[in-house]
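Internal tracking record. Fields below are filled automatically when a chain is submitted to the structure queue. Please do not edit lines marked as system-generated. If the sequence contains nonstandard residues, flag them in the REMARKS field before resubmitting.
Queue: standard
Priority: normal
Entity type: single polypeptide chain
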Amino acid sequence: MLIDWDKMMPTGSLRAGAVRRFATGQQISVVYVETDPQARFDGRPHRHPHEQWVVVTAGLLGMTCDDNRFELSEGEVAFLPANSWHAAVGVGPSGARYLEFSAPPRLDLLPDSLVPDALEFPREERRDS
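SYSTEM-GENERATED OUTPUT FOLLOWS
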């Protein structure tokens, strides 16, 4: 089945300047992200119980995972283990387009989902603590 990202409804985004579109199957989900060069990144790490693969399709994406910082360019792939602290921290001068594959699927990203948000932020950064 072909996914036409232009026909997929945008889902919530962690930052202004990024558009995220979501698709899911029974075993894995994928988010297509388009981020403008002017997008603001706070660098806040988060984690979730899903392993995640990030595939950059255009531009440059800066990331952290646990204590490692790295940049991904077109065609490069990063693996983020389940429950690892990670964050997107910036994009290159032309922005970035990338795919985030998550297993099990991120059902919390479905529009009007009743599944609780899977993201966890460090305790000292939580507003509700």
